[in-house]
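Q: How would the structure tokens look for this protein?
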Amino acid sequence: MKILVANLGSTSFKYKLFDMPGGEVLARGGMDRIGDIEEGSLHKYRLGEGNEVEQPCLLPDHATAIDEALTRLTGEGAPLASVGELEGVGFKTVHARSITGVVELDEEVIGRMEDFFRLAPAHNPAYVAAIRQFASVVPDAPRIGCFEPAFHGNAPLRRQLYAVPWHWYEEYGIRRYGFHGASHRYAAEKVLELEGQSRLRHINCHLGGSSSLCAIKDGVSQGASHGLSPQGGVPQNNRIGDLDPYALQVVCDREGISLDRALEICASEGGMLGLSGASNDMRDIEERAQAGDERCVLAIEVFCSAIRDYLGAFVVELGGLDVISFTGGIGEHSSIVRGQVLEGLGFLGVELDPACNDSVHGEGTLHRDGSRVHLRVLTTDEELIVARQTHEKLTS
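A: Here is the predicted structure in token form.
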């Protein structure tokens, strides 16, 4: 069964074409700077085991990006003779009012995704546009949404609730959902495989443009750092993370702006960008910090302190710790962040090997021989998780 997995951001589109259930990757590709009319975009793709190709292109919107991808996936020498060979399209969907799990993306579900545009402004609009585009160009291929909060659905209810009026929870769905479900699920399964055990207390740190932590016991989520929306939890690239809601009223009053405008600022001008005043990219921030930029130094410290706060809470929730793993672009490549997060945790049985930390980029281990807690870096494969869930839904 040929299944295409679509992974979208506000200005990006990544895809993988799988032959399921075996999981063979027939093609993969990615585009960024979608909507940038002046600079244009770059489509990087690979068909089968061939070399990666870079194709400059102008992509004014996600619909055009999808058309570009399908053009490369079809025809002579491509893995699909026509788009009609696609038997399913899986989406790493983020948020929909009162809907989670793996579901077919009909108009009711799409409508509920639209209800939550304000909670996931970087994701939901792009996904809804892409779902409708695939429905137009590949109408016979079922569109399946694998919603990120699903992995956290078995967490204790006490870890999902806010202390708000009860009807807010019952009627409006105000609770902690947790996100990055595909990444945390992959890490949970991979660590059990690598450790050769079925019972483990494990914390996964998915650190990238969007970041979150997940407490995992025996492969099952016990809670995550994100809250009602992907805006909460630890600071992110340009999202604020946790914030006392009364701060918004202060800013609205002082600057004479609406709540809508304040929320836009929280989602686009906060996080590492707001703290550093320089960039929302950790690579740039680290470079400036090493050159002596005090705000960039402080931004990294705030980021790592927030991670450690959740790490400590999750150690208590799990009743101890066996494994810490790092995924995501920052988790895979930033020895500075990993080092600060793990500093001084010997009392937990964490023994970091500085040489390993400096050398690991992607897959690897960070712990010294004899460390009671194992430290792993994983290259997560969210698309494979979505492909498996989509295949299971279509064949069940």
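The chain has a mean pLDDT of 94.

The longest helix spans residues 294-318.

Upvote if useful.
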